[in-house]
Amino acid sequence: MLPEFELGDYKAIKVEKTEVAVSDAEIDAEIAKVQERQASFDPVNDDRGAEKGEFVQVSFEARPKGLDGGEPEAAEAKATETKETKDAPATETKDIKVAEQKEAAQPVQMEEVLVEIGGANTIPEFTENLSGAKAGEERSFEVSYPEDFYDKRLAGMVFDYKVKVNAIKKKTLPELNDDFAKELSPDFQTLDDLRQRFRENMEAELKHKAEHEAKDKLIEELIAKHDFPVPRSMVEHQIDLRLERGLRALAAQGMKTEDMRRMDFGRLRVGQEEFAKKEVKSSVLLAKIAIKENIQVSDEELEHEIEAMAAQMQQPVEQVKKRLAEDNAV
Fold first, then answer.
1. Which region among 215-224, 280-289, 309-318 has the lowest average model confidence (pLDDT)?
2. Which domain holds residue 91?
3. Residues 49-62: pLDDT tens digits?
4. In this structure, how many other beta carbons lie within 10 angstroms of the beta carbon of residue 285?
5. Would you say 197 and 27 are in contact if contact means Cβ atoms under 8 Å apart?
6. Which of 210, 285, 289, 294 has the most CB atoms around its CB within 10 Å?
7. What pairing do the DSSP bridges indicate for beta strands 108-116 and 138-144?
8. Judging by beta carbons within 10 Å of its beta carbon (0-12, 13-18, 19+), is residue 79 exposed, middle or buried?
9. How far apart are CA 72 and CA 76, in angstroms?
10. How far apart are CA 207 and CA 17, in angstroms?
11. Are residues 87 and 113 in the same domain?
12. 226 shares its domain with 150
């Protein structure tokens, strides 16, 4: 049952939606990403070493040394030292960091990895050691990963690499023309058709984002105008839903179950309290307004909204439907 309170003058709330516009430069940037994905990597048969901008296809073995330059056991000791001596905002954060470093402190073997020499998204110290290498050549070197390295499993560690260069390759981008568009889909006959589809999709995504931002501003105004208590049971249920979504997201990112179990769920529940109250209040307010205005959502409108959500989240429609059903949102 919904809490009893009087609705204020909600019709007086006005929120401006952002104008949606997609520039030619933005379309060009998105098409360039597709062009990159369609690139071919052709062997360089000249008897010479790899040059900047070229790719080496390598196999390698990596052994961690730890920051002190010792053996793998030292890397594990370093992980334990990190747990015991370094400050962290929460216990589970330290535990997860230790688990990640222990996982990294194992020899790693990889086959047929393609690495760009001097590439923007590569580790400079790694590719510099492969610059000038010829096909069939083997090289050994160390790579030190900085403390702020994006992969926390490797941050602050040193690895010994033994690398064999199997081939040198040069990337060739396909020409942006009508044939490029046709190869992507039979729906496109010209490059202009492809550009138009990109424009429509990008505008639809921006429109959906603008609508949700406007809705969020509207809800903020509604909550600010209405002060009423919400049932504790509804808040607890919403906290449960938020934590379930968070755990699903962590699992999707690769966090292990045992690491999740070490998390301080009591502290996490307290941290979700205000967000849950706000979400419950917004749901109650919207439900009250829908009842007063006799608003009903058709199956077609609901389907359209779910499709838009799926496009924005880059997830299959059925997966979004399943998640909404689990959250009792549909």
1. 309-318
2. 40-172
3. 999 999 999 999 99
4. 22
5. no
6. 285
7. unpaired
8. buried
9. 7
10. 9
11. yes
12. no
Tokens of 23: 């520039």
Report CA-CA distances (Å) from 58 to 54, 72, 123, 128, 164: 13, 23, 15, 14, 6
Contact 271, 316 (CB under 8 A): no
- Residue 124 is assigned to a structural domain of this protein: yes
Look at residue 138 and tell me whether its pLDDT is greater than 60: yes
Beta bridge partners of 170: 42
In a domain, 309, yes or no: yes
Q: Crossing angle of helices 299-313/317-326, nearest 10°?
A: 110
- From CA 88, how far away is CA 103, in angstroms rounded? 20
Please report whether residue 182 resides in a domain: no
At 87-105, the pLDDT tens digits run 444 444 455 455 555 555 6
DSSP 313: H
Nearest residue to 31 via CA among 204, 176, 172 = 176
167 Cβ neighbours under 8 A, 6+ residues apart: 43, 44, 56, 57, 135
